[in-house]
Amino acid sequence: MDWQLLTTQLFPGGHEIVERDNFLSGTAQVDGQPVAVIGTTGHTPIGIEIALAQAQAILQTVREHPGRPILILVDTQGQRLRHRDEMLGINSFMAHLGKCVDLARRQGHTVIGLVYDQALSGGFITSGLIASACYALPQSTIRVMGLPAMARITKVPEERLTELARDNPVFAPGPENYLRMGGLHGIWEDDLAAQLVRALRDATDEDRRMALGRERGGRLMAQPVAEAVRSGGHVRAA
After folding, report:
1. How confident is the model at residue 163 (pLDDT cuts 50, 70, 90)?
2. Do residues 179 and 188 make contact, with C-beta atoms less than 8 angstroms apart?
């Protein structure tokens, strides 16, 4: 979906969002209250420039507008795979972005992620997945790694991975599978403005992604393993 069409539907009360080199930033009115908006468009890969721009926008919001909600609009093909970015330490820039999102949450900012087009790899992990809650549009594309690439890395035949993906959401792309795993809190349809108002109202400090994945049957062992590690006990199978 085009970001301008999306923001028209999300913000009937108006917005002041601008796009520069596929980086989105600005403010919008949601239920009569200002919300900071950052994000990406054009399936852009996350290189050092956009990672730093997003981090700066979040820190500026924390510094100048304490407590203001933050909406992250996600459309990215993932981490930019260039020698220049790798040599300059793209991993550190993306880690910095993730830390800034975490800081905002710790300082009382509700951070909502919305995947409106593509969400791949590290570009998604350090934005939407680390937010207080993440949502997606039904036509969005979400995956951490494509099955051909996964086959090359794991040495498991692609045919076997394709077979596993039919029943196991961990191997399968798409918003429905990430909903089952708890990575998404919901899939938005119909009135997007009302969905955003509800998401901001219902957001909490508690991270329920592992619990949601277990409740929905997509990640049965993540929560028991985490709890066992925390308590020093044994894992009980689901």
Report:
1. confident
2. no
